[in-house]
Design brief:
This protein is an alpha/beta fold. It has helices at about 15-20, 50-55, 65-75, 100-110, 125-135, 150-155, 160-175, 195-200, 280-285, 285-295, 305, 310-315, 325-334, and strands spanning about 5, 25-30, 80-85, 110-120, 140-145, 180-185, 210, 250-255, 260, 270-275. β4 (about 110-120), α5 and β5 form a beta-alpha-beta unit. The protein is globular.
């Protein structure tokens, strides 16, 4: 079967404004690791650990199994299953050696309709591939940094043999059983004329593939400094969004257990810590509700972390936009 040329996001979407407030978030992003083995030029991890901590407040950690097990147990307390559990975050998830076991535990607990990982693929050895497949991973999304070893050095900041990554991707796809494999690449990681080569190269070793647009996802990164856009990463023309939809349907859990209402690096608000509070209480709590209201009132930029974040204009979809329904939603939340 020839791979589909489609964006890697979930294509079955609900009109968010009709569903808010949700009893159960659609998605939860659990960060297995905030370490990364790449230094991509458009990412915060291009900086040293000291600069990352200073600029973004991010500590490099792996999530302990005790913390992960608490997250899964607390997810089970929600009235419905989550649509998505993404073992992804501000780092490379395969750097956590326990990642296959994490997938297995989450599958056994049946807390999400779909479990995915987004990875740069560097550590996708045959042993890792077999472990993830046997654990029951539903989707693996690979983010490429070029089609040559030289491009990986230029964009990813690492000495990596592209052919090795390519062969590991082929192995995963050939042995994937029920696991879907999506492959994506940023336009900046392709030389002129290479888009067709990308699609040709992965047409028979992936289920879905796509070229995304680079946007200013991290404030302070030189390559996107001062970049002005009127499109999202999928190339769709957009208008600036006032309210961030992500906070209305998502939770993010950092390795130490801190919980935020999105999956960004910035921690715009810490709702609590899973070692001290329950996820369900955080989702239903007044702290999050007031955060929602500030966004609906048009005060998103009043939060300095939110003001620096491009996610509403980057990864929000037309079905997610809340601005036109802000007054209705404020009344509903009151």
């Amino acid at each position: 079967m020839v791979s589909k040329i489609e964006p890697i996001y979930g294509t079955q979407r609900t009109q968010l404004a009709t569903a808010v407030p949700l009893q159960t978030p659609y998605s939860i992003y659990v960060f297995p690791s905030t370490y990364c083995n790449f230094k991509c030029v458009y990412c915060a991890h291009m900086f040293s650990p000291e600069v990352i901590k200073e600029k973004y407040g991010l500590e490099r950690q792996h999530m302990p199994m005790e913390t992960f097990q608490k997250v899964i147990a607390q997810m089970a307390e929600f009235p419905q299953r989550f649509r998505l559990l993404s073992l992804t975050g501000q780092g490379e998830p395969l750097m956590n050696k326990n990642i296959p076991e994490m997938v297995s535990i989450a599958k056994a607990a049946n807390v999400a309709e779909r479990i995915e990982i987004i990875s740069n693929g560097r550590l996708l050895s045959r042993k890792m591939a077999d472990g993830l497949i046997e654990a029951g991973l539903d989707t693996l999304r690979i983010s490429l940094q070029g089609l040559t070893t030289q491009k990986y050095k230029e964009i990813g900041g690492v000495n990596v043999e592209f052919d090795e990554i390519y062969e590991n991707i082929r192995y995963f796809h050939e042995n994937s059983k029920g696991t879907e494999l999506f492959v994506k690449i940023m336009d900046v990681s392709l030389d002129p004329g290479e888009e067709a080569q990308f699609y040709d190269k992965f047409k028979d070793c992936s289920d879905r593939m796509y070229v995304e647009r680079m946007l200013p996802a991290y404030a302070g990164v030189e390559i996107t400094q001062g970049m002005k856009t009127n499109y999202d990463r999928y190339g769709r023309t957009i208008e600036h969004r006032k309210a961030c939809p992500l906070a209305f349907y998502m939770l993010g859990v950092f390795p130490e257990g801190d919980v935020e209402p999105c999956d960004t690096i910035y921690k715009p608000i810490v709702l609590g810590n899973i070692h001290k509070e329950r996820l369900l209480d955080m989702w239903q709590g007044e702290k999050l509700r007031e955060f929602w209201k500030e966004h609906l009132r048009g005060n998103r930029d009043g939060n300095p972390k939110c003001a620096n974040c491009n996610a509403p204009d980057d990864v929000s979809h037309p079905e997610d936009i809340l601005d036109q329904d802000a007054e209705i939603l404020l009344h509903r939340l009151s």
